[in-house]
Design a protein that fits this description.
The structure is a homodimer. Chain A is an alpha/beta fold. Helices cover 40% and strands 25% of the residues of chain A. In chain A, a hairpin with an 8-residue loop joins strand 6 and strand 7.
């Protein structure tokens, strides 16, 4: 039993507007255990609308549409449904009254063209719209049901919550509960993660485990469906354990957690302060840290040492070191971390250097090469990496690498 | 001659991720005059994928798909196309070499699993991917053509621009021209901009002018359609002039230009260097500047002075000033800018203080209050603002305000 979500409007197919209704409806259906197989967006073309509804009703039990219910000539949903089911459009007196009343309430006379909003294909029933003039349309067709809602998000959200969802539940269109557990990792690519997880990510497995990658963060999503919440949680728990076992310290957090959230929590746990000394990331590590509320107790500040003069003058990096090894080197990044820790008087200091490109790379030191160093009372740790990517990608990943080096250090540090 | 755009992935049909690829592709096709009739999103289900491609190829001449080309088991596009056209998957030696070379360049061995990315349905040809391991697939089918691209936006954008668009143009898939001119402004809200533009933004007007707002940047889009590029440009030109006249120096750039791009260009024009002294923005102003290639000649570095001790010790802000006025004050931000300019020896220094929240606000100094100061040889300019917003919104807008203060200063400075 699959659902399909249809979004209607040329403003979406032309790319002028971004469709967010389909995402919202998918999430609502997931919560009540109805899997969504398809989203379809169609322009304001009558024949295309009829065909899209025909295909949807043939492959999905539940079809939720939004858009095309307004009073203007390019609002075609009513007509498309009438053609699809080969019936006439008939006026619904109660709906007409409601639309007139809504205009009256706003002190306006209903324009004649709004009358069409009270027309319904025979066999359909109106869905109450408490937020606007366009009633929705509820149309059973064969084994399936089509529910059409307005395209305006606030009207659609309210109509789904108060009118459509209760009808779906009453019809027994419910597959229990679906929960989703997201586990975030850093340090391995997508295929590397999958190799370690092996059979866990096999297609068709229950619960399903999906992998997504976003800017060097590989996330696993355990999607568990069951009749009760307890059962769903019990289904997901062993998989989370298995993932954590196999990926070990590469797992840094869950759900919306980002590396900086975890780093700040660990700093607080150990009661350690930190400062930043940034070249290639140009302030991005500091900026990620300050997105976390309450960070000011642990993050004191930093030096953005973009120009070599700043490295020398503000971070006491010996000029000879830069001449000998180049600014993008293990030696210089170490000196920056040590200099920053001394200068700002913090427990830890994290430093970055690298080549973000697009120009400036050599064979020995290609664009994408990044060095990170962490200075602490235990000395200096460095790590390097080389990414293929745009300038901002290299900068963003370098900042993540830096945060991850701090995280791993704090995880291993005795308390 | 219509196009269909297919987005593949259970992470989209479940609503976990928002599909932005379809919108982007729709806009690109609009520019070259190809109307999009349908967007379809399908989950990672093999049968559903085959059927979705079958329907698309039957109703559209051009089918652009993204997603499902990765190396993992839920990447089904290759298989779906082979089933659709009833052929075998065959290995493409050149593609395999490219994938191996990409791993080698990063100093890694190609996992076995990535081999599948070199498989293509017989009759298809690979599309070069310069940004990642997954080649695209170009598959003529009957009168139509299917082009499959990776789901990762940066890879997809690049592949479309450099590989797919040229092929579409070469095949004569073009139906008139639509141009879109985007004009970016900072300093007025959406309704303020609309008030100044009045009749220019009326619905149904030709050319159409749309307003979009994103993180305090209000953009106007002039959309002009004509049979030739010259005609379309001639249609849009008077509107751009009118917008620039009415919004004056609030217009900072066009198309994808960001405030930092304009600031760096102005710094280069005046041959002036800059440094940053950031409290509330915590490195974000510096980070925005370093996204611009070639900035290193003008941006030397900065101090992230999050903690008051750093303001005092690194920026020579008198402690008494902080005690008397508070860290979030005109007086302190001015002292930071002056101290930073002296310390880093640059022509200009820009400083920020503010309350990003969520905690820490008072009646006199509410969350969202931001002060910005620019020190130059002509003295100090300050500006303050107060935004309602989340922590990251306040930080981001404060950084934009700072960049805008630099921009306006440089615009007015004689050369």
């Amino acid at each position: 039993m699959k659902a399909e979500i249809i979004s209607i409007g040329t403003e979406i197919t032309t790319g002028q507007n971004l469709d967010t209704n389909a995402q919202w409806l998918s999430r609502q259906l997931a919560v009540i255990g109805i899997p969504v197989g398809f989203h379809t967006t169609v322009s304001d073309d009558l024949t295309d609308n009829v065909n899209v509804f025909r295909i949807a009703a043939s492959r999905a039990k539940i079809v939720l549409a939004s858009g095309g219910l307004g009073p203007t000539l390019d609002d075609l949903t009513r007509e498309a449904l009438a053609l699809l089911t080969n019936v006439q459009l008939v006026e619904n007196a109660e709906s007409l009254q409601r639309i007139q009343a809504m205009f009256a309430k706003r002190g306006r006379v209903m324009p004649d063209r709004n009358k069409v909003q009270a027309l319904f294909p025979q066999g359909a029933e109106p869905i109450l719209n408490e937020r606007g003039t366009a009633p929705g349309i509820w149309l059973p067709i064969g084994d399936s049901v089509i529910a059409c809602m307005p395209g305006v998000p606030s009207e659609m959200f309210h109509m789904f919550e108060t009118q459509v969802k209760p009808r779906l539940l009453a019809m027994g269109f419910i597959g229990g509960v679906q929960i989703e557990r997201k586990i975030n990792t850093f340090g391995l690519g997508e295929s590397g993660v999958e190799e370690r997880l092996k059979e866990l990510t096999a297609r068709g497995r229950i619960p399903e485990i999906g992998i997504t990658v976003s800017d060097a963060i590989v996330s696993l999503r355990i999607i568990a469906r069951a009749t009760t919440l307890e059962e769903a949680l019990a289904l997901a728990a062993p998989d989370e354990l298995a993932i954590r076992e196999r990926l070990a310290e590469m797992v840094y957090g869950v759900e919306q957690e980002e590396l900086q959230d975890v780093v700040v929590a660990l700093l607080a746990k150990h009661r350690l302060t930190i400062a930043t000394a940034e070249s290639v990331t140009g302030g991005l590590v500091a900026n990620r840290l300050v997105t976390v509320p309450g960070v000011s107790e642990w993050f004191h500040g930093g030096i953005v040492a973009y120009d070599n003069r700043v490295k020398v003058q503000q971070l006491a990096v010996p000029e000879s070191l830069i001449q000998q090894h180049g600014a993008v080197s293990k030696e210089v990044v170490e000196a920056m971390a040590i200099g920053c820790r001394t200068k700002l008087g913090t427990d830890l200091a994290i430093a970055t250097v690298g080549l973000a490109g697009p120009g400036g790379g050599t064979e020995e030191k290609p664009v994408g090469l990044v060095f990170v160093a962490l200075a602490s009372d235990a000395g200096v740790i460095t790590q390097s990496f080389n990414w293929n990517g745009t300038r901002t990608e290299v900068q963003s990943r370098a900042a993540k690498l830096a945060l991850n080096v701090v995280r791993l250090y704090l995880l291993k540090r005795g308390s």
